[in-house]
């Protein structure tokens, strides 16, 4: 009998796993289940749609036919509510049961809600799905004023959307800089200036105490913890992702409070259950500890890796340097690896729009942020991948046109 695979989630992790399974197992039964109403689309590009810069069509990656042509059973609008790991089956909200020999959980996450009054008011948006983007676009186009909360990589998308849609917005941040765990004030100031140029005002040492609403329950303003009031017809909240844990309850699957724990082969603590993408906490072989990635390329690679190991455990280990770029501004921006981790760092500012910072752990690069000039990224990623000890040549690393050959005594990992 042919082996059966069930995949929960048709994001890039789930979809690329299905594709890899089909390529390598022509006779397998493959089912992909998603609670969304549309097949895989480019989640990275939905912000361009919300900005009004891209129509819907090019954002779609696969249509339903793509699955049919590959004999992959795609179930749209189907929420998995229960996993029976002993009985090897999952159950949907309609009560349908899908049996599996091997299961892949690729369920991503759900944006976290601000735990403040009226955070569920009309006009307060979170951003994850294409459906969210449609709602954001409609509301932001009608808005004059906006508030953004969440000084990270998704919050800045909201800010760019407000900028592109001529909304006069305040970006309320808790500390003194955007993404202060990865950037210093010097680096963040480049971002702050670019935001101001687009009509978005960064507000520091702020945040949201609560939202005020009008008689119709629509958000009217945000009140920050200092008592300042900021008018807002539109609010974008991006304070992090919660992994869907309800379906893990009672399964015996290991979850550490942040992600589903998997090894470097994407296998969970149960032999027949794998996980891939944003929902995992994986053995990061480069970092030497468990880590999480929240990036498209990494989720895709994890999906492919999981599929190979579901067919032949141990076939493919996950060894990956993640990248995440921002394309909202006139200058390029790239973060790679784990820029918020490490025990040491080195940084340099080259001009008003060019800056770099590398995070190091035990003398090795574990991540970084490059603004303005991305040319040295491959050198840094190579050193990171190879685990080269560079802690005593930190200043060389941030030379403007750094290349690996500039290092005097690099020591590769043993
Ligand atoms: C607005 C936005 C901009 C982004 N920009 C970038 C960027 O520029 N660069 C970058 O690298 N990354 C970016 N990302 C992050 C990137 O998109 C994610 O890391 C990636 O899509 C994660 O893929 P995934 O397959 O793990 O999860 P997801 O894409 O979240 O897919 C999981 C799927 O599972 C479904 N699901 C969940 N639970 C169930 C269930 N119980 N039953 C059925 N289905 C379920 C979900 O609805 C979803 O469709 C961005 C994300 C967003 C939202």
UniProtKB/TrEMBL annotation:
Residues 5-285 form the FAD/NAD(P)-binding domain. The keyword Flavoprotein applies. Keywords: FAD, Flavoprotein. Residues 330-387 form the NADH-rubredoxin oxidoreductase C-terminal domain. This is Pyridine nucleotide-disulphide oxidoreductase. Its cofactor is FAD. Pfam families: Pyr_redox_2, Rubredoxin_C. It comes from Halolamina pelagica. One of its GO terms (molecular function) is oxidoreductase activity. It comes from the Archaea. InterPro entries: FAD-bd_OxRdtase (IPR050260), FAD/NAD-bd_sf (IPR036188), FAD/NAD-binding_dom (IPR023753), FAD/NAD-linked_Rdtase_dimer_sf (IPR016156), Rubredoxin_C (IPR041575).
């Amino acid at each position: 009998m042919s082996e059966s695979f069930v995949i929960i989630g048709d994001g890039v992790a789930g979809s690329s796993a299905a594709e890899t399974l089909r390529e390598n197992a022509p006779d397998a039964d493959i089912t992909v289940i998603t609670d969304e109403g549309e097949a895989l689309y480019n989640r990275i590009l939905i912000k361009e749609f919300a900005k009004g810069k891209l129509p819907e069509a090019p954002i779609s990656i696969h249509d339903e036919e793509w699955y049919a042509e590959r004999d992959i059973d795609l179930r749209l609008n189907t929420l998995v509510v229960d996993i029976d790991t002993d009985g090897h089956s999952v159950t949907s909200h309609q009560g349908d049961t899908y049996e599996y020999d091997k299961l892949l959980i690729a369920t991503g996450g759900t944006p976290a809600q601000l735990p403040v009054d009226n955070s569920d008011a009309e006009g307060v948006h979170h951003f994850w799905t294409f459906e969210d983007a449609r709602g954001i676009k409609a509301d932001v186009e009608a808005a004059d004023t906006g508030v953004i909360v969440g000084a990270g990589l998704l919050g800045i998308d909201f800010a760019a959307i407000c900028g592109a849609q001529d909304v006069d917005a305040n970006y309320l941040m808790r500390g003194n800089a955007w993404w202060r765990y990865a950037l210093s004030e010097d680096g963040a100031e480049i971002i702050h200036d670019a935001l101001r140029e687009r009509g978005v005002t960064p507000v520091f040492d702020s945040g949201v105490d609560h939202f005020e609403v009008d008689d119709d329950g629509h958000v009217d303003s945000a009140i920050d913890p200092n008592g300042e009031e900021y008018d807002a017809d539109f609010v974008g909240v991006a304070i992090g992702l919660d992994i869907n844990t309800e379906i893990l309850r009672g399964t015996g699957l290991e979850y550490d409070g942040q992600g589903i724990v998997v090894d470097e082969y994407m296998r969970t603590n149960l032999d027949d259950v794998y996980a891939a993408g944003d929902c995992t906490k994986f053995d990061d072989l480069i970092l030497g500890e468990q880590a999480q990635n929240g990036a498209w390329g990494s989720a895709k690679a994890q999906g492919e890796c999981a599929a190979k190991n579901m067919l032949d455990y141990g076939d493919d280990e996950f060894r990956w340097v993640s990248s995440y770029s921002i394309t909202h501004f006139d200058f390029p921006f790239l973060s790679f690896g784990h820029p918020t981790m490490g025990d040491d760092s080195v940084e340099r500012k080259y001009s008003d729009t060019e800056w770099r910072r590398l995070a190091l752990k035990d003398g090795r690069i574990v991540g970084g942020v490059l603004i303005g000039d991305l040319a040295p990224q491959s050198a840094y990623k190579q050193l990171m991948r190879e685990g080269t000890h560079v802690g005593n040549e930190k200043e060389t690393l941030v030379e403007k046109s750094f290349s690996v050959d500039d290092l005097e005594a690099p020591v590769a990992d043993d």
